[in-house]
Design a protein that fits this description.
The protein is of the alpha+beta class and 186 residues long. It is built from six helices and eight strands. It folds into two domains: 124 residues; 40 residues, no CATH class. A hairpin with a 4-residue loop joins strand 6 and strand 7.
Length: 186
Amino acid sequence: MLKDWLRPSYQPNGGDPFLFYVIYGEVDLESPLSRSSYRSEGIPDGLEVMHYGSDRHADVVSGFREDYLWEEFLKNDPGCAAQVAAANECVVLRGTPTNPANLNYLRDTVGLLTHFLGHGGLCVYDPHMFNWWTPERWRERIRVLNGGKLAVLKRERVDFRIEYFIVGVFLPKSLYLSRLEVDVLR
């Protein structure tokens, strides 16, 4: 049994998260997921995994390789970008876990993406974080999670409450705000 990722500030009907990731490469979707190695129970409820290739919806495969984020990736990591540009396949993980009372969906998603990278994935495209994660950078960013720590970022507003549930090690410096408090959960 995997340890739950708690959500102590959870309030019902506070909104549902939307997750969206693209993994480029020839991902072996038949490879069994080791729950203990990847700390994942598999595909969380509300999410779906879709495979696209040159023979099926080639426009989806090429569609993420354009616009500003792609141009930045080409400039910042031309080697990995060249591999992604040559890839004829991608896997899309997307969906909305409905009003989850804990963060297990996030734990499971991170583990599943890591599994995909270990089984043919070249890179994770994360449009919510404006980033293309190489396998090395992805593993570097999540290594803190393997110790069972998760940073939950909260920002209070006078008229209503907004909670940002972002894995702290993924937080870009540009998001640090003066009124942001960070709780580290174990």
